[in-house]
Amino acid sequence: MASISGSAGEKTFTLKAFLGLHQNPDGDTKLKFGEAADMRNFRVTRDGNLQKRPGTRTLATLDEAEPVRGLWSGYVNGEELFLAACAGKLWKLTPNEELFTPTELGNINTDNDVHMFGFSNIVYIINGTEYKQYDGTTLSDVGGYRPLVAIAIPPETGGETLEQVNKLVGPRRAWISPDGEGSTFQLPETGLQSLDYVKDLKTGENLESTAYSYDLEAGTVTFTETPPQAVNSYEIGWTMAQNFREQVSSMRYSELYSGTQDTRVFLYGDGSNKAIYSGLDYDGKPRADYFPDLNEVAVGDANTPITALIRHYSTLVCYKTSSAWAIQYGLVTMADSLQTEAFYVTPINRSIGNVALGQVRLVLNAPYTLHGNDLYEWRNTASYSSNLSVDERQAKRISDRVYATLGGYELERCFCWDDNDAQEYYICYDTKALVYNYATDAWYGYDNFPVACMANRHGELYIGSPDGKIKHLNYIYKSDDDEPIDAYWESGSMSFNQDFMRKYSAMLWVGIKPESAGEVEVTVQTDRKSAYSEKVIATSLATFREANFARWSFRVNRKPFMTRLKIKAKKFVFYKLIFKTKSPDTTVTLLAADIKVRYTGMAK
């Protein structure tokens, strides 16, 4: 935003708000006053000020030869945990003064990204080859719920089917109903691996092994004494040799959903078009260790995989590489007139989807996806519903201002994160990141910013780095572990509303926020000359915290102040304003800039 004052021959242009990066494909002469043609390691604050990006500090080193594959922060059984996956281990990070003390919890596979989610006071861990859990004490493989597959089984054969078998494990159980005459009961399966127990449901005690005999191949149990007539009086448990655990452990990511509640775990990411979801046990308890055999959702064609699931209001939105779908909870009536839960799939968009596996984020209740060379925001603006529906206009491209940078990223390899506390959305690739400040609708880029994963804890953002470090990102750090941050901001080519006239500028004013160690270099460029004098603006408040006596000051006034700079530029048509800083022990927050311009004649 700019304001103009002065006479017809001389005017002062005021930059009141910085608007972020804008990489216009047609050049930088049409940029708004305050937009940057080039910008790195500066950020835009909520008030529209320009600020050197936060620095990072290493709080723990896990293994410098291996990347951090996952971070998770949350509560387990009332205990707050901060967990990291790195170098084949799961680590617990315990705050110790200003650092973290890492403690090994056990072995996990860290060849790929490690995804963690909390459910029923347990942290579940999935990585494409394993499905593990940590209960606050022990890290172990997820054992799996033993389903009640049949009830009311009479002697010889029969009964009613109940729960489906569990993909994770081979154990099952069934209830039998003796008639007082028969003593042999046929289980629903044959070729058993083992007969585990026979339990009296009235007492809850297991029967002695002498009270029955069994035939594993035939799948029968014979009582030594004929049991009395009763309904569902005994439970028989057995184990089958074959299970389908690999279908669960091969998944990579999760999302919680079950209509209006988050009571089921959906897993996806095995490279197929299928997602599997957990079930409820016999008592109606949601479980993340029970994946019924038929609980699968196949989305679209089998040639393109599911790349993301995300709950959006009462719908589970499913993204594939080039399409988007909605999964909704419902009921289906079976042939026997009984109703059961089901999930229906309907299309949303047939041409736009998401290419980065597991990287869709919900930003202000709108999914953000990477597709092609762009970032898309998905939002239904209809008054009757907020859920996404079949309408291609709901996918809005919002990355046009950073098309050049984003086009150089391999979007399939990007890591995305929504820092809701700061209202900044990150797209991280290699050692670079694009940041979208959705509170101010401004884009900016960071470099020398290696990120493998991120997590929010207590309103602060933490980074897992590719070299096994846990870093804290905060404005209190003026460097990256004492490495200077090279910050640069360059305006567009400004003609000051007169493309056809030459101008002369002898001075400008720059306003900065007083800080303990604030410093910035100011210079300009024109179409006539690229190198002008560089002026340094520094501010230092009287403070003994991180005191630097090279810049010591007795200044205590914390009010913003303007500094006049004399930089003479003659006979130019287009003018660029440049701010830069590369000191490891300074920062800066720029508030405004005023440029005095005099028109001197027609351009030739």
- Any idea what the radius of gyration is? 32 Å
User: In percent, how much strand structure appears in the residues?
Assistant: over 45%
| Structural class category | mainly beta
List low-confidence stretches: none
Question: Mean of residue pLDDT?
Answer: 92
Q: Tally the helices: what do you get?
A: 2
Helix coverage percent of residues?
under 10%
The dominant shape is elongated
- Give me the count of strands: 49
Show the helix and strand layout.
Elements: E1 2-6, E2 10-15, E3 20-21, E4 35-40, E5 42-44, E6 50-52, E7 55-61, E8 68-76, E9 79-86, E10 89-96, E11 99-107, E12 115-119, E13 122-126, E14 131-134, E15 139-141, E16 148-153, E17 160-161, E18 171-176, E19 184-186, E20 194-200, E21 212-215, E22 220-223, E23 234-239, H1 245-249, E24 253-258, E25 261-268, E26 274-277, E27 296-298, E28 306-312, E29 315-320, E30 323-333, E31 339-349, E32 361-363, E33 366-371, E34 374-378, E35 395-397, H2 403-407, E36 415-419, E37 424-429, E38 432-437, E39 442-446, E40 453-457, E41 460-464, E42 469-474, E43 487-491, E44 501-512, E45 518-526, E46 535-539, E47 561-572, E48 575-581, E49 589-602
Parallel strand pairs: 3-4, 16-18
Antiparallel strand pairs: 1-2, 2-49, 4-43, 5-6, 6-49, 7-42, 8-9, 9-10, 10-11, 12-13, 13-14, 14-15, 16-17, 18-23, 19-22, 20-23, 21-22, 24-25, 25-26, 26-27, 28-29, 29-30, 30-31, 32-33, 33-34, 34-35, 36-37, 37-38, 38-39, 40-41, 41-42, 43-48, 44-47, 44-49, 45-46, 45-48
